[in-house]
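Below sits the subject:
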Amino acid sequence: SRLLNITEEVYFEIIRQKTASLIGACCEGGAASTGTSDENIEKMYKFGILVGLAFQIKDDLFDYGYGKNIGKAIGIDIQERKMTLPLIYTLAQVDDNTRKKLINIVKRHNTNSTKVNELLQIVKSNGGIDYAAKKMEQLRDEAIAILHTFPQNDARQSLEALVHFTINRDK
């Protein structure tokens, strides 16, 4: 059984290793192939990490029906007992009884759609969705700030479009 007492710090470490490091490596490799400075290669790696983290949070938000969400069924992460940022935040905000109720749903009732919907509503009403969306937007802003240290050109424009696509996609 998965650890359900995961902290936000652990969550970010997991997604850094899972999704973000892949995108970071791609950006780093792309930069390295141009013969640019080590400093620029490092900046592009950091850029990729930020985009990867934002991408994963967006994916987590889809599970709560955030956005149009035509691509993914709602509540799948809960069924798989995945601890995502909206839930981690909510568990840290609510009282003990609500926390126990949420953990019980994830552990024992994760395939009961009524219970899963109840969990989704508790997460929404306790600011879990808004918190995760705000984190995702902060990561986007940090990624764009890195891009803006480079001269304006087609490559920078394309990467900026990629960042916005990552955040604004609806599946």
The mean pLDDT is 91. Helices lie at 8-32, 38-62, 76-79, 85-93, 96-108, 113-125, 128-147, 154-168. The CA atoms of residues 60 and 84 lie 6 Å apart. The two ends are 28 Å apart (CA to CA).
